[in-house]
Amino acid sequence: MSYSFDVGQAHFAVVNTDPVGRDGVAPTGWLASDLASARARGLRRFFVFGHKPAFNYVYKKNPKKTEGVGLDKFPTQRDAFWDVIEQFGATYFCGHEHMFNMAQPRNCAWQVLVGTGGSPWDAKPGEQTLHPQSDRSYAWASVDVHRSGRVDMTVYGFSDSFGPTRVIRRVTLAK
User: Residue 66 has what pLDDT?
Assistant: First the structure.
């Protein structure tokens, strides 16, 4: 249930984070081999997609619980997965949590949580969150991969009151 493909200078890997009997674990060995093979073919930009986030987004200022809802249920396996993401400078797109968040969990690779595809948000109406301007936004990311190797990512969204679409965040990824 994991697969990959190339488009131009970029490599895309889709990983199964919900294998039967091992929910919340990503195929780290397969991913490392796949990305190494892509690098050997000369590719330098890597994007990985999975359902569960590697790092739980704690959106409340004083959460009552912070146990993992994704790959962080198993920190050792999660860290091995994230080591591969960082080794290849990949960007990880995920969902599962019904929120938007974009972060560098270990100050290197990006995790882009775009779990606001229409289900009710994890943050309830009126609940105070860390990023009130974006936590309750329907969001999506547009990624431009340039021939130079530069990658520009723009996240757009609109509020839960269906206000106008706006830019939530812009990032240029290092070469």
Answer: 61
pTM of structure: 0.91
Sheet holding 137-145, edge to edge: 137-145, 151-159, 166-173
Q: Does the pLDDT at position 168 exceed 80?
A: yes
Average of pLDDT values for 103-132? Answer: 82
The structural domains of the chain, with segments of one domain joined by +, span 3-135
- Residue range 88-101, pLDDT digits in tens: 999 999 988 888 88
Superfamily of the domain at 3-135 = GpdQ, beta-strand dimerisation domain (3.30.750.180)
Q: How many helices (H) and strands (E) does the chain have?
A: 2, 9
